[in-house]
Amino acid sequence: MSEGTTTPRIVAVIAAAGSGERLGGETPKPWRRLGGQTLVERAWRSFMPEALDRAGQRHRVDAIIVAVDVAYQAVAHGYIHQCSVPLTVVVGGATRTESVRQALRHVPPTAELVAIHDAARPFWPLDRWDELVDAVSRSDGAIFAIPVSDTLKRPQDNSLETVDRSDLWAAQTPQVFRADMLRQAHEAAKEEGIDATDDAELVRRVGGRLQIVRSTSANFKITDGADWSLAERVVSEAPSQPALRIGFGYDAHRLGGDGPLMLGGVMLAASGGLIGNSDGDVLLHAICDALLGAAALGDIGHHFPPDDPQYRGCDSREFVRATLHLLRASGFAPSQVDATVMAEAPKLTPHVTNMRETIAADLGIDVAMVSVKATTTEGMGFVGRREGIAAQAVVTIRTVLGSQS
Which pLDDT score is estimated for 241? Predict the structure, then answer.
């Protein structure tokens, strides 16, 4: 990172391949749920722009790499569509050092800094992120740490010797390093067969200059059952918004447009589409309206005015993606969609599966959480006269403040 640069290109690496044997239980520690989210999810969400925005920080992460056990690779891939920055999943190694080394292979050469964080620390101080990143401009790396407060003892000749703690610090994560220095440190460690409990030690061994940024005791690492109990208590006592919100949306358009007939992001006919400034996809419009309403962010017409020429002929899936971005920036994520399309023709049943899959992919949720139903109006009203098509949607969204709250 050159001197004077205020917005370095940063990649965050999440080490989440461990089993957490000391914690016990059948589920590996990174995949245990704390406050409704796995530790892995809480970790990568803490580096998203919206999380750092809420913490008042200016430095942004350009990409996130998560190192996981091979058995959870497919599960981790499910997070990719939910992340507002590029997220890469890699298979970790047998040790923490090997997992980070695997992730480094996927760090683009344009990255100036790499942040390493352990998924087992769900409460790191986001409000000190800028201080941590800025410290690297004066060194080769910077780490969060706190002064050791406990009295330390060393066994000595059948007795106990007190160890001077005046200059001892307990290291934490995240730790941020110059990308080139971190690569050099890991290459040297591999050649020498060295493993370490944190990356700062590897950087120190190759002569790297390191800085400490004072952290807090709240940034503890979950290791055993007592730590897990403390984490659950922290989450339960933290002020939070309601876990779920519900939204309702409705839209209708006339038939007879020049373009294709689009519903749910799927083309049903090559011509005779719905008339609208965009492609007129009433199903996606109703879903967007419901999502915005659930988050109290206004309606679809406010964010995508029907008379705005930039949206003329626009693919309504772009509206869905933009709506999802607005939700994430406000600390929400979609959980479920239940929609009904009212149309006399064409028959929608053959297209429902495709619609559900398209909607689920764009919202980053499982297809099992998307319901699309079709009905007629028995010949009544504008739908019954085949003048137009209408759709309504009910959605639930959840708060995703997690470790950022």
Answer: 53
Q: Are 371 and 13 in contact (CB under 8 A)?
A: no
C-alpha 338/C-alpha 315 separation (Å) is 21
* Helix H or strand E segment including 81: none
CA 313-314-319 angle, 5° bins = 150
Rounded to whole angstroms, how far apart are CA atoms 191 and 121?
30
CA angle 1, 5, 63 (to 5 degrees): 65
Could you tell me the pTM of the whole model?
A: 0.61
Q: Which two tokens stand for residue 52?
A: 């750092």
Distance of CA 318 to the CA centre of its chain: 20
Determine contact, residues 264/393, Cβ cutoff 8 Å.
no
Within 31-178, residue ranges assigned H as helices are 39-45, 49-54, 73-77, 96-104, 129-135
Residue 352's region, left for phi above 0, alpha for psi from -120 to 50, else beta, is alpha
Cα 103 from Cα 101, distance rounded (Å):
5
Q: How far apart are CA 157 and CA 302, in angstroms?
A: 76
Burial environment of residue 215 by CB neighbours within 10 A (0 to 12, 13 to 18, 19 or more)? buried
Helix (H, G, I), strand (E, B) or coil at 228: helix
Q: What is the pLDDT of residues 321-343, one digit of tens each?
A: 999 988 887 778 899 999 999 99
- 């409704």: which residue's tokens? 36
Joined together, the tokens standing for residue 129 give: 């992120």
In whole angstroms, how far apart are CA 271 and each of 125, 277, 285, 385? 55, 16, 20, 19
